[in-house]
Each structure stands twice: as C-alpha cells, then as structure tokens.
Amino acid sequence: MRYLPLTPADRAEMLGLIGAASIDDLFSDVPAEARLSGPIAGLPMHASEMAVERHMAALAAKNLSAGAAPFFLGAGAYRHHIPASVDHLIQRGEFLTAYTPYQPEIAQGTLQVLFEFQTQVARLLGTDIANASMYDGSTACWEAIAMAGRVTGRKRAVLSGGLHPHYVASVQTMARFTGDTIDARTPKLDAAPDDAGVIAAIDGETACAVVQYPDILGRIPDLAAIAAATQAAGALLVVVVTEPVALGLLEAPGKLGADIVVGEGQSLGVGLQFGGPYLGLFGCREKFVRQMPGRLTGQTVDADGRRGFVLTLSTREQHIRREKATSNICTSSVLCALAFSIHMTLLGGEGLARLAAINHGRAQALAARLAGVPGVRLLNDAWFNEFTVLLPGDAREVVRALADRQVLGGVSLGRLYPGVPELRRGLLVTATETATDEDIETLATALGEILEGMPA
Amino acid sequence: MSRYFTRDHEWIEVEGDTGTVGITDYAQGQLGDITFVELPAAGQAVKKGDSVSVVDSVKAASDIYTPASGAVTDVNHALADEPELVNADAEAGGWLYRLKLSDPGELGGLMDRAGYEEYVGGL
Amino acid sequence: MNAPNTSGWRPAMGPAGDAEAGLATASGDRGLMVEEPLIFELGAGNGCGVDFDQSGPEPLPLPSLSRFLRKSAPALPGLSEPDAMRHYTRLSRQNYAIDLGPFPLGSCTMKHNPRLNEKTARLPGFADIHPLQPQQTVRGAFEVIHQLAHWLITLTGMEAVAMSPKAGAHGELCGLLCIRAAHDARGSARRVVLVPESAHGTNPATAAFAGYRVESIPGTADGRVDLAALKARLGGGRDSDVAGVMITNPNTCGLFERDMRAISGAVHAAGGYVYCDGANFNAIVGKVRPGDLGIDAMHINLHKTFSTPHGGGGPGSGPVVLSAALAPFAPLPFVTRDTDGTVRLVEEEDAPADGPQTFGRMAAFHGQMGMFTRALTYILSHGADGLRQVAEDAVLNANYVLRSLDGVLDAPFGGSGPCMHEALFSDAGLPEGFSTLDIAKGLIDEGFHPMTIYFPLVVHGAMLVEPTECESRQGLDRLIASLRAVAERALAGDETLKSAPRFAPRRRLDETRAARKPVLTWQGHVQPPAAPSLSETGGG
User: Which of A51, A168, C297, C431 has a 20 to 30 A CA-CA distance from C237?
Assistant: First the structure.
C-alpha cells in the first residue's frame, strides 16, 4: 500500500521490541466482543492510483461543469477566472501540508500570509481589523450576530429581506438553541431593497441589524441610512458581503458606518467547488477586538529583535477559554485565505477596481439583452454583477429547461424560497468577467424559445 | 483599615465601607506576564463569589471572584494601557476595582495576611 | 520605471555580533535562508499580475449606482506575477510541513497528504460546478457525497451521517444540536452536558455555543473517564438533568476508553445521549465500529482520518455519523438514493412536510465538497483492508515511540498498558528550570516539528507525540534519537536549550508583547533603514 512505509518485516521487528506478541495485543483495551476480526465485509479492498483516478473521473464526467456551458449562476457563489499561479502556490507543500501555526518559529510563512490577509480584508471591507478567516460567509454571519449580542448585551437581531436565505436559515438554526430572537423577512419584488422596513424594525432591544450588500436579489441597500438607525438605537450594523469583487466598485461597508462586516471570500482565488470549502471574511471596529471570534495574527519581535508574527489574543478562544470562549471555532479556512490573498495581491486595488468594472459592464450587457426577450422584465434599478428578472411563469421550470439545452441560466427564486409562491417567477442571473457575448446570446435565445413555448 | 485575602488569591483592602480589590503577588507570579485585564463597569452590583473581572496572560484567562458584595464605584483605568502594572505592583498600584460594601459581615470568612501566607506556603 | 522598495523596508539583521564574525550580508539573506518583506513593503505596490480580457474601456457604471460608488480604488498593493510568485514561494520556505518531515502533533494527526487527492479534487467536473446548479447537471457530485457517506456509515456502524458540517468543531455543534432537537422533541428540557477534564477545548465551547451548561467529569489515575463519578452525576434514571456526555475515544491521553460500553449504557439509562469526539478515529478505523460501543453521534475530521490537507489551519470538514435515535434530526440538506438508483439532494425545496424532524440548516450549500472528493479518493485507495492497516500501523508506531523513550521522559500512563495512536509524556522528570517548551523548541533545532505540548490539561507539562502510520521505521528512529538527545540535554542541565531554537527562521517570539499591544494589520510604518546596502553605496 503506497501510503504506508512500514514493511511486514518492520512490523514484526517493532512488535518484538515493544514486547507485544501480535498487533492485537496493542488493541487489548478495545472490548473483545466489539473488535473486528478482519476488513469490514462488503467494502472494496485497496486500489491502484490508476483505478481510483478512473473511478473519480467517471463520477466527475457525470457533472456539467460551469466552464463547459454558458453560465450565469451566483447567489452567494461566483465564478471568476483564477490566475494559474494561485493554484500552483497553494499546492506548495509548505503551505498545503502545514498545521495551524502553533510553533511560530517554523511557521512564519503562514503567519505572515495571515497578517497580510488580515490587512487586505480590513482595507477591502473598510474595517479597522479583520481576523484570519472563518468557515464561510453563512457561519461568519451567525458569529457576527453572536458577537453583537456580547457587545450590546442584547439578544435580538433584525435581518433584512435581502439576506441570503441559506444565511437566514443558518442563523435561525443557531438562534433556536441560544434563545436569540431573530426578526427575519422575505424579500419583496421591488426595484430597491426595503431599507425602511429594516429601520422600522430596529428597537431598543435590538443587538444588530444584518444587511446584505449587494442583496440576494442584486439590489444595493443604503447602508448609511441604516447605520444611522442602528447607532441611534444603540445597536450594531452587521453588513454581509457575498460577492467581495463588488467592493472594487462600491463603497466599503465600514466606511458607511458598519460595525461588523462579514463576507464570503470565495470569489477571489477559490473555485466554485460545489459549495465548499470557502472562507468567511470577518472585520470589525478595533474596540470590539476582544469579543471577536476566530484566530488573529499579530506582529511582534523575536529574541533577537527581528520582526515576526504569532497567533495572538488566544484567551478569547476555545482551547484556553473552553466554555467561556467567544466561539467554538478551531480550524478555519487558512488555505482558502491564502488563495484569496494571492489573488488579491495579483490584482491589487487598481486591478480589483478594473475587474469590478468589467463585471458590472458584463452584467449591463446581459441585462440589456435579456430585457429584449419577450416576457422578461428586469426588476432592479441598480445592481453590480447580479440582478433579478421576472418571467411569465415558474422560473424553476425555466432553469431546468435551460439545463436541458446545456445552458446554466441562473438560480430560480423558487429554489431559494420554496415556500413563497409570489417569488416563483423570479430568476437571479449573474454575469462575471467569464461571461462572453456568445454566452449571453445563447442564454437569451434559449430563454426566448423556452418562454415562447410556455403556457402563459 | 485592614486587608483580607481569599483562597482564590484576591485581596481586599477595607477602609470604612469601601473595599479595594486586587490579586496577590503570589497570583501574579503564577499567571506570568499579564496582557489584559477585563474590569467590571462602575455602578455594577456584584455579589460575593461572582466572577467580575478576568485577568489574561498569553496562555490563560483567569476569573477574578469578588471577595465581597457591593456596588463597584471605581476601576483602575491605568490597567487599560498598562496591564503589566499587575505584575509590577499587584498589591498596591495594580489594584483592580473599588466597591462600596453592602455586607461588611462577609469579610469575617476571609484570611488575614498571616493566614494567607501560611495557606500559600502549603500549596 | 523601476522603483523597487520605495517603502524603505530592510530585512532585520541576525543576532548582534554577526558583523564582527563576518557573517553579515548586505541583503540580510544568507544563501537559501531568505527574509521577505510584507506585500505592502514590496516595490511601489501598483503592479498587476492579471491581464483582463477586454479591449475597449468598460461601460460607465449605471447612473442608478452612482450614489453607491467608492471614490477611489481600494488601497491594496498589486504585484506582477513573477513578483507574486517569489513573494509566496519565499514565504513558503519559512514553514515546516509534512512534506518536509515528521509532524508528530498529538491529537492533530498530521499524516501524508496524497497528491492523487489533489488531482481528483481539481477535475473540472468537481472543482468547477456551482452548488445551486439544477440537480440534473450534478448527479456525479451527489454520487460522491453518497459514496463517501456510505463508507463513513459502514466504517462506524451507524445509521446515518450528516455531511454538511464545515470542520470538526462544527461537527460537534451538529451532534449537540441533534441531541438538543431529540430532547426538545420529547419535551425534555435538560440543559447540562458532561465533558471530561481531558477533553479538547472545542467540546465545552461547543456545548456552551449550543446553549448548554457544561460540567466536567473527573478522570481516573490511569487516564480514563471515572465511570463511578459519571454514574453518580447522572443520577438515577429519567429525571436526570444531563442531556448528554461528550467523550473522546480514543481519548486525548492516547488511551482507549475501556469502559465505553458501560459509559454509554449508563448515559442511555439516564435518558441522555453519547457524543463521541471522533478526532482520534484514525486509531481505530477498521478495528472497531463506534456504533458497537453505544455512540449516538460522532464527528469525523476528514483531515485526520482521511488525509485531506490541513492547509495551515483549514479548511476542514466534519461529517457527523448518527445513531438511529438521532438520525431523524439531522440537518438539511442531505443526499439520498431513490429506489430507482437516482442520487439526489434533499433541501428546503424538496424536504417532505411529514419527513424527518430536521433541526434545520447549519451553513449555506451542501458541505465541503472539495474535501469529500479528497477523502473518497483516499478511502478508495486504501480500501477496507488498507484502512485497517492504517490504524494498526499508527498504533504500532506510537507504541514504538512510547517504549523507545523509556528512561528519558516520564510517561504518566505508560505503565497501564499500550497506548493507541499517540504517546503521552509529562515534564515530571525534567530538572528544575527546564520545561516542556524547552523540549519542543530544542526539537525544532533538530529539524523536527514538535509534538503537541501542554495538552491534555490533565497532565502537567504534557507532550503528546503522534507519529501516524506515515513514518517509516528509519524515520521514527531519527525522530526518537533527536527526542532522546534533547531530553538528555535537559536532564544534563544544558542551559543553551533554553535559547532554542537557534537555527529556525525566527528565535522565540515575544507573545506577551503581541497580546498587550495588538498589531493586527500593517500600520504603514516604514522601518528606518538598517546598515547601508551595497546598492546605496555603490554609486550606480
């Protein structure tokens, strides 16, 4: 077996040196009646690299990959071009096969990357500080709400209707067990998000308002107005960004009054991968640092006075504070943070702005073309690279019909909001820099044909 | 004016109905370099035995249990910028907070200096 | 225009006295030992490593967007591709890694990461599919999840598996939420979870995160859960306030909980559930099925048992296997196979109203697919026979280490029989003034990553050595020789050990300073130039 260096002779000799008659002697603490006498029946035995690769490739071939079709999905996961150097660098064994940097003298590579990542994320989000990553955007969203509760001493969160429904559901799951009150709402099919509704729901018991920017339908909320309301109520504004490329074009949430900004970082450096692993971004005001979840890297000096980096403020964390920790998170998503950071470094601020402008341009082209398809109505009055169109019938059926024609045409609101019939005509479409004119034309033509054949 | 000690290594200096609370020099030595002190809020009502403050070192966070009940009247603001004061001067300049005692009778169960030194000697 | 290093960054020089010894270099680097500035200090920072596929100028932003636009581009430095490649490659060389040598971190399980896993995970059919694609276009992805789930269920002897947790601690949360949901469903308001003193910190943190009060249960002198104390705390029968217990098995002392079945029986008799922290499942995979020990829920860290790369701190993946009692409460979404053989995803859209009593969703989308493909690749490579061999070799290697250090390091439970996959030592035999930390740092100078130190908390100055099955006999002998040598230096009172490491990219770092005045982002302060460099004095 190719991953096991011990030979049968080694094993026999080592058992002898230990003083064990057989390997079973070493498992003598396992109750005999529960011990398995041989490999579990019904499972295959070991296989060659070639055979395993063949098996996995056959499974992969059953999927229609995004690069093999006109592709317009978003809704919290975005397909951007990732420079080849990113994937090469994250596969360097020194990054790929390292552990959490508990021994900083021999982990400066990871630690410096995390320090750079924290700085990049803080600058992108417009916050004072950022942590070294969370699992993903949805779990970071709950962590932000829990943190707002610690900061304010309150247990009520107001969620905007524009928050990704998977994020809402994840938050509601946790709140059911912690006893927090979650005031959530479904989005209305209006051209702009219902900021006034969020503001009206904020009261003196509110720990935070949670607002997605751009929102799940691609619309842009007025963060400054909501920030004024949270501030007046002694609550915090938590902003959720699921498409960080948008921040190349839109003002950073932290500059508009957000107290905590969380995000899904997948767009930069991390491929779609069917939903994971991704990375959560988490930034906030510096005065809240001791209430933050997750790992933090800080600058210091070594015994010779040379600059170096360490994991710091660990007394917030589970391995020291145990049941009093700010979060139970341990392993987060450092390799994805590395990919994010490399991609960001390759782009730079100017490059990110250019990428964002291209995305926005592609989405304008898509909107213009779809608006010309009979029966299609554009919902948004503003958007970045993702927007909602209303179709004459159930968008879920249209998405499936498009897939039958090898077109990945968007995400139906019916899939995101299964119990809400008034949203079922909504189709969420996204155009990143990867969408060509031909892709847009193929989608528009196919959509026109499908709608033509649909009963009104 | 008199000073009392707890088995959790807090001290309280009592003057009239005011108590000043800190951790002992022995405690700071055990904790090592102190990096942060979380203090109660002025005005906060505390009950004897409550954890009202946390003293952090790099690898540990230690709860500080108030030796007496009362209302917090003042905290040692200098610790925000200089937590190391607790290391340098635990039993004077490194005090944590003051409180107006609500039940001076509670002090009866605490140790005096000699008792505490004997207790520490046995650890 | 070439404007290198406009920020004025200079590498910090090595120990004082180097100049006299003739060891100083103008660059601050020494051969292959290189210093690397931050990206914010490299060059003018206005480079770009990406060319865009767009000829003309982009269209202007929508007028309706104008009030949301930022005034200027984010203040983030950019590097050309060659500069970026060098930056990250140079940084990578400051890391220790499994690919460089043994990584004997007890409880963390750092085993070899096969590159076939990386290759299959990058097949476009897995790497380039969107989680919300219509199900008809991603059947192969659901099959991967289903096949991995089948392996996990079969290897553990459990009823079901929840695949969506993002990491081990997230899996713990999933298991505890299942337990909460099960109690809620029968109207029981139990609010206490018992956790042994030796547990990972995530256990009590998770229980608290799930809304439970945590109480600890003591251990026995031979490093295991005190069954009598547990039974006493559980109280008699159905009116117990204990919702469940969290047991790590094999435990964090590297020992198998011999009384596991009795523990489970007692907890079940008291109406509670048994959560098992499966961090150490790698020691028993193929040797015993947790389902046969009365476990109700157990997470499996895919990186520990099934070789997905740790990546310097994640991503992880923490599927949770569940007993029949807890399976109905598993989170959404999940993958199921219909009678016609079609594998499909059940999410909010498809969840039948009269179906299982799921506690809901834990995160967006369907779990760590990129980790599933890697783990399945590894599992298929090893097969049922190979996985069993993995456990046997891991345990054999650990016992070899345990016995080879007899006489130099104190093994607190060494007398109570064999260990499982990790060997636990304490600082008991070290002379005054020498600590576990010194042993760890001395090992760094020997070219090894240290073992886990100061964990578990129940052993003073703990050193937890987990060699894994991936070390050869020769590799183990080299590690053991260095461990012995470092321990013997301490025993001999060698003061130089206290200044170790001396041969690593950094000496011991000032963690107190980092925590007292946290510097968490680059502050833009330019360090004053050090000694004049050749380029400045060369008159070029």
Answer: C297
Q: Give the pLDDT mean for A233-260.
A: 98
How many whole angstroms separate alpha carbon A384 and alpha carbon A364? 9
The whole-angstrom separation of Cα A341 and Cα C202 is 28
Q: Residue C283: which domain range?
A: 117-377
Q: C275 to chain A nearest CA, in Å?
A: 16
Instruction: Tell me how far CA of residue A33 lies from CA of A28, C287, C289, C391, in angstroms.
Output: 11, 11, 11, 18
A363 and A311 in a common domain: no
pTM value is 0.95
Q: Which residues of B touch C508 (CB under 8 A)?
A: none
Bridge partners, A301 (sequence order): A307
Residues of A in contact with C19 (CB under 8 A): none
Phi and psi (nearest 5°) for A346?
-65, -35
Tell me the three-class secondary structure of C22-34, residue by residue: CCCCCCCCECCEC
| One domain for residues C272 and C318 | yes
Would you give the DSSP letter of residue A45? B
Which residues in chain C (463-492) have CB-CB distances under 8 A to chain A?
Answer: 469-473, 475
What per-residue confidence (pLDDT) applies to A419?
87
Angular region, C193: left φ>0, alpha ψ -120 to 50, beta rest: beta
**What is the CATH number for B8?**
2.40.50.100
What number of other Cβ atoms are within 10 A of residue A33's Cβ? 7
Is residue A159 located within the same domain as residue A173? yes
Structural domain count of chain B: 1
Per residue in A50-102, pLDDT (tens digit) is: 999 999 999 999 999 999 999 999 999 999 999 999 999 999 999 999 999 99
Q: How far apart are CA B61 and CA B55, in angstroms?
A: 6
Contacts of B36 in chain C (CB under 8 A): 515-516
Cβ of A320 and B59 within 8 Å? yes
Domain count, chain C: 2
DSSP string, C525-540: PPPPP-SPPHHHHTT-
Q: Is the pLDDT of residue A228 over 90?
A: yes
Instruction: Identify the burial level of A304 via C-beta atoms within 10 angstroms of its C-beta, where 0-12 means exposed, 13-18 middle and 19 or more buried.
Output: middle
pLDDT at residue C2 tops 60: no
The values of phi and psi at residue A120, to 5°, are -60, -45
Q: Measured between alpha carbons, how far is residue B41 from residues B17, B20, B54, C15 in Å?
A: 19, 15, 13, 46
Taking alpha carbons only, the member of C255, C220, C259 closest to residue C424 is C255
Which helix (H) or strand (E) segment holds residue C215: the answer is strand C213-217
Residue C128 contacts residue A64 (beta carbons within 8 Å): no
